[in-house]
């Protein structure tokens, strides 16, 4: 294979700014990583989750930085090394000279690996940026949770770039539950979480409350507590969270992940808007497995 397929993919984004070009090239790199992992059998053990999952599989209109996974069953002895070798071989076929920084520690439940490359960008033609500065590198972080909460639900999806391949993913109610855990428990501001919240609620996505309860018990302010996590509990806690947010900081965080021209939607991001989103979503449901 040659770098031509990367150039064609980059051109298809019709980027309007240097930031968009960097985001697009990172996303292309993420997709190649997913393809390499799929070819190596990774998705027999693990599932794709997080914002990048929404972006590449469901068309979420914001870019993402990291690739997040969770094992389908707890396995504290999970080894990533064999998959990393496959990643390096796959990327080389597309013109990458991949630098893999393994940040795993023996006792870490979340394994972290950084993929870095400063070579493929020098082979491409950019409309808005130059890939000549020594500091310019594509950086993608992979995180794998080896001790996932119980009650995950899975499905298989397919991607077409750089070739057709299957990916095991958390289903949407489980993905929304994972995002809700981040919204309620994250100790720092991440505007992308709130962008995703709007996406889920606009599509009337239900929440896998059993998964959310298990995640709460595992980590965060409700750790080791047996909570009755249902819609009423969720609405009450999310109201508190929404009223506590600095919405200017939230908006500032998410801006660089949006395409030029779509930042206007952030103008009405405030407490009233998100409370309305929450209450409208809660009123959608009247029971069922996911509450």
Indicate the topology:
Layout (H helix, E strand, L loop, with lengths): L3 H9 L5 H22 L6 E4 L1 H8 L8 E5 L9 H12 L6 E4 L7 E8 L20 E8 L8 E6 L5 E6 L1 H14 L5 H12 L6 H10 L12 H14 L2 H8 L16 H12 L9
Helix pairs in contact: 2-4, 5-6, 5-7, 6-9, 8-10
Q: What would you note in describing this structure?
A:
With 291 residues, this protein is α+β, with helices and mostly antiparallel strands. The protein is 42% helix and 14% strand. It has ten helices and seven strands. It has helices at residues 4-12, 18-39, 51-58, 81-92, 172-185, 191-202, 209-218, 231-244, 247-254, 271-282, and strands spanning 46-49, 67-71, 99-102, 110-117, 138-145, 154-159, 165-170. The strands form two sheets. Strands 1-2-5-4-3 form a five-stranded mixed sheet. Strand 6 (154-159) and strand 7 form a beta hairpin.
Brief overview, please?
With 291 residues, the chain is an alpha+beta fold. It has 10 helices and 7 strands.
Which descriptors would you attach to this protein?
291 residues; alpha+beta; five-stranded mixed sheet; 14% strand; globular
Question: In sequence order, what are the helices and strands, one letter per element?
Answer: HHEHEHEEEEEHHHHHH
Q: What is the 3D shape?
A: globular
Q: For the report, how would you describe the main beta sheet?
A: 5 strands, mixed
Helix content: 40-55%
Portion in strands: 5-15%
- Gyration radius, rounded: 20 Å
Q: What is the count of DSSP helices, taking H or I runs of 4+ residues? A: 10
**Mean pLDDT rating:** 91
- Determine the structural class based on helices, strands and strand pairing: alpha+beta
Uncertain runs with pLDDT below 50, 5 residues or more?
Answer: none
**Tally of extended strands?**
7
């Amino acid at each position: 294979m040659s770098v031509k397929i990367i150039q064609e993919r980059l051109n298809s984004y019709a980027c309007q700014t240097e930031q968009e070009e960097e985001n697009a090239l990172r996303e292309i790199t993420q997709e190649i990583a997913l393809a390499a992992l799929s070819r190596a059998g990774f998705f027999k053990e693990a599932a794709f989750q997080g914002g990048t999952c929404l972006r590449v599989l469901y068309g979420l209109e914001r870019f993402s930085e990291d690739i997040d996974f969770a094992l389908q069953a707890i396995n504290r002895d999970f080894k990533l090394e064999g998959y990393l070798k496959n990643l390096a071989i796959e990327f080389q076929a597309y013109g990458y000279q991949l630098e893999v920084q393994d940040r795993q520690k023996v006792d870490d439940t979340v394994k972290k690996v950084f993929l870095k490359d400063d070579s493929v960008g020098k082979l491409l033609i950019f409309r808005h940026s130059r890939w000549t500065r020594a500091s310019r590198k594509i950086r993608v972080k992979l995180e794998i949770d080896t001790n996932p909460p119980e009650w995950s639900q899975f499905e298989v999806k397919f991607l077409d770039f750089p070739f057709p391949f299957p990916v095991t993913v958390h289903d949407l109610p489980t993905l929304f539950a994972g995002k809700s855990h981040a919204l309620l428990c994250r100790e720092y501001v991440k505007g992308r979480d709130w962008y995703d919240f709007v996406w889920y609620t606009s599509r009337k996505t239900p929440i896998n409350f059993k998964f959310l309860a298990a995640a709460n018990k595992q980590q965060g302010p409700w750790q080791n507590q047996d909570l009755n996590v249902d819609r009423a509990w969720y609405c009450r806690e999310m109201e508190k969270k929404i009223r506590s947010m600095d919405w200017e900081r939230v908006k500032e965080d998410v801006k660089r992940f949006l395409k030029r021209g779509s930042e206007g939607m952030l103008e009405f991001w405030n407490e009233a808007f998100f409370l309305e989103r929450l209450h409208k979503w809660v009123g959608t449901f009247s029971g069922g497995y996911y509450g």
